Amino acid sequence: MSKAKLEYDSLPYPTVVVVGGGFAGLEIIQGLNGKPYKVLLLDKQNHHCFQPLLYQVATASLSADSIAHPFRRTIAPMANVAFRMCTVQRVDPPAKLIHTDRGDVPYDILIIATGSTTNFFGNHRMEQEAMQLKSISQALDIRSDFLQDFEAALYAQDEAGQRRCLNFIIVGAGPTGVEMAGALAEIRRTVLKREYRELDSDRMQIWLVDSNERVLKSFSEKSSAHALGYLESMGVNVKLGARVASYDGEVVNFQDGSTMEANTLLWAAGVKGVLIPGLEAGEVPKANRYGVDRFNQINGLPDVYALGDVALMSEGQWERGHPQVAPAAIQQAQLLVKNVIRKSKGEAMTPFTYTDKGSMATIGRYKAVVDAGNLHFGGLIAWLGWMFVHLMALVGYRNRLQVLMGWAWKYMSWKNTIRLIIRPYVRRTVQQAVEVPESA
Ligand SMILES: Cc1cc2nc3c(=O)[nH]c(=O)nc-3n(C[C@H](O)[C@H](O)[C@H](O)COP(=O)(O)OP(=O)(O)OC[C@H]3O[C@@H](n4cnc5c(N)ncnc54)[C@H](O)[C@@H]3O)c2cc1C
């Protein structure tokens, strides 16, 4: 047994278990590093994923490993922190026990930072047929899918078939939808036009659909209008005030009775917190998040905290909870670390107040929008600002360098270069159809 393991096991400290190594969880373990706690990070993945750049992996601008960072590399120098890869299945608060797919784990303090997942609002067929963008494997699915569609279009028998292959529908005009639509529009203008010469690139249509009346609803009206102008100038069809009712993998039905044929629909129209059985006492069902007090403790569950996307804290202007974004997760984690230490010393804890530093989204080359306080601007400065902020927020110097190089290459060559179908995407319904039934 290694010296490091012996040292960790014999630490005479209370055990803090952190479930989820996203923005919130990672900040917690960094804050508790070197403090008198035995910290155990549990995550179903072996890496942290920088979700804000997932769309660039999905659209072949960045490689997957440039936006992911292995937990073991992060915790290697942290003597009081350990990591176990597992899926947490249930928590038993009275017994202070966590049940995972790899066994049980006891805790003194439990911190839930499980983030959020795509919300299909109970539409199971949509969940089966639509693509989503919350993880690296889903980003790689999207990358394979659009490249496979380009190749398939060359075999289509007629124009209608070709158009179906090249019709991309994105539901949800929030930052993810807007960024994906812009990136696909750039691919049409560069890659499709230059490298798929037998195809008429105008047959590729990108639709950005939202039931709201404007794109980027959470941004200022000025930035929304700015973003809409960018999208339209890039040839994206923006369909606002339109609600998607169903999708069967080939045809999208809208609530107003209209239809559209498309092989690909990306659902980016909502998220819901990843809740863990056993903690129902703290759930706010309508919000799909855990109700927490100003110290991030889950309502009614002592020594159990939740933070980040999965937590719903009512505070100041944020009556219905903070936005589900990285800064909220990070700020909550930074204060929670201090409060856990204060509480153990018998000192008073400090209530959380969110500092909103603004929002930014990028639509394409030189096209981005920034809301910062009363400042709302777009264009080159906003685009450079967006790149700088995202570069600095990445975990690890290697990832920063890799992303910087990736962007430099892309913007100099005008190409999305990582266009490899390494793991072909097979639709879930097709996968299920070819699965051999157990009885066979
Ligand atoms: C495509 C996309 C683009 C985004 N762009 C931006 C942006 O530009 N700016 C911004 O501020 N925010 C952005 N966000 C939102 C931001 O990424 C989230 O707000 C942030 O990741 C929340 O952090 P978190 O720590 O709460 O959860 P996450 O970062 O989601 O981490 C949750 C972790 O919990 C683990 N986990 C979940 N369930 C279990 C379980 N049962 N057992 C074990 N482990 C589990 C997961 O594997 C994951 O590692 C974006 C999100 C997406 C999806």
Domains counted in the coordinates: how many? 2
User: How does the major sheet shape up?
Assistant: 5 strands, parallel
Compute the gyration radius: what is it? 23 Å
Percent helix among the residues? 25-40%
Bound molecules: flavin-adenine dinucleotide
**Which of globular, elongated, flat, extended, rod-shaped describes the shape?**
globular
- Arrangement of strands in the largest sheet: 5-2-1-9-21
CATH topology of the largest domain: FAD/NAD(P)-binding domain
DSSP summary: helix tally = 13
Please report the total strand number as a whole number: 25
The low-confidence runs, each spanning 5 or more residues with pLDDT under 50, are 436-440
| Multimeric status of the protein | single chain
Based on the coordinates given, report the CATH architecture of the largest domain: 3-Layer(bba) Sandwich
Mean pLDDT: 94
Q: Classify the secondary structure makeup into a structural class.
A: alpha/beta
* Approximate strand percentage: 15-25%
Q: For the terminal residues, how far apart are their CA atoms?
A: 46 Å
Highest-level CATH class of the largest domain: Alpha Beta
